[in-house]
Amino acid sequence: MRIVHEAIAGTLESSDVMVTVLPPPGRQAEESPGRQAEVSPEEPETLDVIVTSAVMAQFGHQIRAVVDEVLAALEVTAGQVVVDDKGALDWAIRARLQAALLRACDADPDWAALAEARA
């Protein structure tokens, strides 16, 4: 899945999570609808994941595992993902991340990959 623009899902309410997804640096300014950005081979694209949580000490490893599972299932390899957790359960983190990614890619969802990400 290729992130083409910024997207947000969720809220900062208690027991929820806000997920912000951004394209790789430089891609936002270079892309316009119907046109793909050119990325030079000497600048490899990276995937940066930032997780903050009020319960990071207790559940940080589980939150990160859920985020990594969804990103792997949807084959996200470049961009920035910011997860601001306020005590959300796994299913909410998974749903918010999927929603933000689908909004950011402007593509038809791969429903099989989404089903695998729930497992």
Based on CA atoms alone, the radius of gyration comes out at 14 Å
With strands numbered from the N-terminus, the spatial order across the biggest sheet is 1-2-4-3
Task: Report mean pLDDT, rounded to a whole number.
Answer: 86
Strand content: 15-25%
Cα distance, first to last residue?
19 Å
Shape: globular
Strand segment count = 4
Query: Helix and strand string, N-terminal first?
Result: EEHEHEHH
Q: Which range best describes the helical content: under 10%, 10-25%, 25-40%, 40-55%, 55-70% or over 70%?
A: 25-40%
Quickly give the structural class: alpha+beta
How does CATH name the architecture?
Answer: 2-Layer Sandwich
Which spans have pLDDT < 50 for at least 5 consecutive residues?
none
Largest sheet: 4 strands, mixed
CATH topology: Ribosomal Protein S5, domain 2
Q: Total domains, how many?
A: 1
Task: Give an account of the 3D structure.
It is a single chain. The chain is an alpha+beta fold and 119 residues long. It has one domain: Ribosomal Protein S5, domain 2 (2-Layer Sandwich), CATH 3.30.230. Helices cover 39% and strands 20% of the residues. A four-stranded mixed sheet has the order 1-2-4-3. Strand 3, helix 2 (56-73) and strand 4 form a beta-alpha-beta unit. Helix 2 crosses helix 3 (90-105) and helix 2 (56-73) runs antiparallel to helix 4 (111-118). It is globular. The protein starts with 6 loop residues before the first strand and ends with a helix. The mean pLDDT is 86.
